[in-house]
Amino acid sequence: MTILGPLGFTAPWLLLGLLALPILWVILRAVPPAPIRRMFPGVVLLLGLKDEEQVTDRTPWWLLLMRMLAVAAVIIGLAGPVLNPQDDSGEQAGAGPLLVVMDASWSSASDWTARLEALDALLTRAEREARPVALMRLTNPEAPQFQAAGVLRSRLTGILPEPWQPDDARVTRALELLPDQDFDTYWMSDGLARDSRKPLLESLEGHGRVTVFESPRAHYALTPPRFEDGHVLLTLRRLRPGPETEVSLAGHGLDPAGNPAVLLRNPVIFEQSATEAELELNLPAELRARITRFEIEGARSAGAVSLPDDSLRRREVALIAGNENREGLELLSPLHFLNKALVPTADLLDGTLEEVLPANPDVIVLADVATLSPGEQSGITEWLENGGTLLRFAGPRLAASDVSRSEEDPLMPVRLRAGGRSVGGAMSWGEPKSLAAFAEDSPFYGLEIPEDVTISSQVMAQPDPTLASRVIAQLTDGTPLVTRKSVGQGQVVLFHVTANAEWSSLPLSGLFVRMLERLAVSSMPASPDAADLVGTVWQPLRVLDAFGRIADAGNLPGVAGEALLDAPLGPELQPGLYQGEDRSLARNVVTADTVLQPAVWPERISVEGLSRAQETPLAGWLLATAIALLLADVIASLGLSGRLGGGRAGSAAAAILAAALMLPGMARAQDDPPTGDDAAAILAASEVTLAHVLTGDRQLDDMAQAGLRGLSEILFFRTSVEPAEPMGVDLERDELAFFPMLYWPVTPSQPAPSEAAYVKLNEYLRSGGMILFDTRDADVAGFGAASPEGRKLQQLAAPLDIPPLEQVPQDHVLTRTFYLLQDFPGRYTSRDVWVEAAPPDAELIEGMPFRNLNDNVTPVVIGGNDWAAAWAMDERGNPLVRIGSGFSGERQREIAYRFGVNLVMHVLTGNYKSDQVHVPALLDRLGQ
Amino acid sequence: MSDRITLLRRDAQEEASRFPALLARAEHLAGTVLLGDHGRRRSGVGDDFWQYRPLRAGDSVRSIDWRRSARGDDQYVREREWQIAQSVLLWVDTGASMRFSSGKDLPSKGDRARLVALAAAVLLIRGGERVGFTGWSLPPRGGDVQILRLAEALATDGAEDYSEPEARGMIPHARAVFVSDFLGNLDPVEAALTKAADRGVRGVLVQVLDPTEETFPFKGRTIFESVGGSVSHETLKAGDLRTRYLERLAERKARLAHLSRLTGWQYLCHHTSDSAQNALLWLYRAMDGGHG
């Protein structure tokens, strides 16, 4: 290969052919164009005119130049030019086995395709050199198997990164798996610094030469969202400081209609040489609750995706107390401690029950509220069924009331004994009671019970068969302290003590807050500590892959609460969203503490980047250009000799030339024209279009089509209705709404429409459409009687929503919408045409020429005069069917056309002509 | 023999099938012109009411309008507007040179000539005149059926390249309409016009030309041929002929205009790229002007 700058030629000797070009120039120049034969009636005026000068007919220079270029392109193309030729001699050609080590972590996912391409190139070279290759992914180390590079290449697409990092344990395992033989190593690093790199590198260097491959691409990471002071805070990090860069951060979630959508999109700017950027979002609570995922757009890596869990979703809690009028005595207020406990993590609602219920809060707290009105009761019950949590606290009022005394109240978990009890007070025996350890099935299981929590008063539960299952916290003597029952999807929880410190010291302790958390009354703080999660099991809901795509977790096993928080990610603990009892927790790839640090390699290791000029053979392009030029030459030559069709040859040639010169790769399809049904619908809707029902009888359908075409022509010439070409309508498939009128020829053999088609037809009739039924039998035997078409018509029309009919009365509006008519002939002249009957109360008003009949268009017109035949025209406007004889037949055809015009006018203008009878009255009223 | 008849009949049918379309277009075109003042503006024989006048001596008793007279003591006669049917003779060039059009969107000269002539005929017949062809083939008559006959007769094509006007059968004091491209020999035209002038026939010359015949937009080596192929002319540089061609054309137009001035005719040059309606309006106005 000969190399000239960035170009190389595989067959450079062919370039000598370029020397022949000047000779070609001289030869091509001398050929004159052939004369054009042109038809021109004015030739008589030319006879005898002589040419003044004899022009030498030479090919124009630009045509010559084009031909030269084409020939030059062919010659150069055949010489095999290659752009950016790769000089193999410079590269170190290795021998022996090659081990490809890939970090394959989430941070290499963003340019994974480029990595695979680089790997493919590497494997291709190895295949050429017949080196065995093995592959090892550090995120999921398996014993490397040296095999032919081609085998590995065929598996390339199956090699995927994992959404975690190669941690120490995995690297140690990889070290153990390394084979003993010598091999070269090609390490595709993800670019992040890691302590475990050093021992692995040293070990690999012991086996042979190590080449590192690293992408210079920017890596971004997104830390989990935090909620502070009413704002959502997001921190973005990047691997290397660089110039000022703007990235776009998107929040995905469900829109109000329940469809996945991008709910917000904010630009974030990394300052010059900064590695961290912050974004503060001020979102309404409702929008915040709907966000399911934040991501840096275009990053395509699990590190650039962050799943918010319940920490962003603030619960709405409605606090309602029985008596709130004790101003100034805040510490005694039944809601004071609840307020304090909930304000940091929940949105509190104030108001009465009626006001609060429509807001659909997550939790309603009733502190010492005894009786509820029946309306409130049913409202709360419904809300509970839909998943609300009703939290009740006892108190003096509840203790004194009869609620849930003799039988269980639906809004109380247990029956209560009258009065309650006091222990350890001045007037009672015994010590104040403390809490017993929580049972394993209790939601509070695992919470530590402080020593100093004591209960001095409480309401007592009535022993019941169901009581044991409803107790979730009890005192050391076994008395229930907190009871719960589920109602529908919701639950009712009763604390048997007050919500203030009157009856117990529970509200003063941290245990109270945690118990509220476990009951999902308050939201979980942004970073729950392990102690809170001890003893809980979390089920993965959705997991992330390395590319940041969310997948259903399927049947992955549950994860222990304490592991969920700080165990390293791996196949057992994949990043994603985990569902616990009543709430969810997200485990993201990047945590608040993740620091991105670029990997540093020792000097002796050579590091390659991804970008590398590709070898591009140019022969194909050059040859294609030559063909395009030659095509253009053909067109230009034709144009020059005037054979492209008359005077517009020039412009046409220019257009074709431009089209031919466009490179094939640039040709782009036009917007696809709408096809099939849409096109027909657009056509039908853009003009008035008459339509006929397809009967399946080819001949009949053609006749109907020709008839409507004739009627359309007549309308076009005589009236301002200018219909488009008529259409055949398939009742089963086509939309009917576009057509003002359907012509329905009846044959005994046509199939009856389906149920769905009848629904459509009735809809059509109700919305102002009209069907003209034509039995085409001249109605010889009277309407609906003996002829087979008549019987078929009865059968067809039975399911239709047709009003009572009568024969067209003399004063029907159909007789005067355009022409004044009394007969409605087609091919036959039967007088019997049926339309919707006039209302029985239509009477002739004094002074009016017509009765005021129906107020709308008659939905059907039924007759047997074979109108289509009388209307039918071919494309040239010749009548297709002979009507009557001689000019009287033509007269009958004329009247048939007039009937058609009247009919279409009636459909389009409704009772307009009928309303004309009111004109005198209107004028009179106006004082004219 | 029967083959020939079948062939002829097929051709005839094909030809005949063209005339309804022509008729429809002509009627559509005629529909755009409002029939206006074609009455004679004086009393006479006609359909339209003109005036009531008192009974004079000599009026027959039958002519008294009893309805009007019953309102008073005098007797009145109902007079109608004088309407007289004029004969209009058409000659439409059927030569092969008329079958030329320079572009797909342009009608051929012959089509345009037929359209304008037939539309004018429709208008005239509706106005009560009688329309026919020069020569003996179709004498002037009135009525809708005559329109059909005219349309049928117009649908034929001549064989020769440039046809000569038919000047026989001119009815004295009739009106005439000659539609042609007038590219052939002008002497027969002159003869026909002189003959017509002798008989007191006045009329209209409509010259229908294709736009390329006006502009001559040709260049380079070209062989020009007439439509029938009987005449041809070769040039190496068509562009150079342009000015001389245009001079000859202008000369020809001037001669036509001069001829028509001499004989009391009117002359219009119409291009197929223009709207047919313009030509029709002009034509109708020119015909009507003669009646006034």
Structure write-up:
Chain A has 928 residues and is an alpha/beta fold. Chain A folds into 5 domains: 91 residues, no CATH class; 142 residues, von Willebrand factor, type A domain (Rossmann fold, 3-Layer(aba) Sandwich); 84 residues, Immunoglobulin-like, CATH 2.60.40; 204 residues, 3-Layer(aba) Sandwich (Rossmann fold), CATH 3.40.50; 241 residues, 3-Layer(aba) Sandwich (Rossmann fold), CATH 3.40.50.12140. In chain A, strands 19-18-20-21-26-25-24 form a 7-stranded mixed beta sheet, with helices on both faces. A 6-stranded mixed beta sheet of chain A has the order 7-6-5-8-9-32, with helices on both faces. In chain A, helix 3 runs antiparallel to helix 17 and helix 17 runs antiparallel to helix 18. The radius of gyration of chain A is 45 Å and the shape is flat. The termini of chain A are far apart. Chain B is α/β, with parallel strands linked by helices and 292 residues long. Chain B has 2 domains: 226 residues, 3-Layer(aba) Sandwich (Rossmann fold), CATH 3.40.50; 39 residues, no CATH class. Helices cover 39% and strands 19% of the residues of chain B. Chain B has 9 helices and 9 strands. A 5-stranded parallel beta sheet of chain B has the order 4-3-5-6-9, sandwiched between helices. In chain B, helix 4 links the parallel strand 3 and strand 4. Chain B is elongated. The chains are: A alpha/beta (928), B alpha/beta (292). The interface between A and B is large, with 35 and 47 residues. Strand 3 of chain A pairs parallel with strand 7 of chain B.
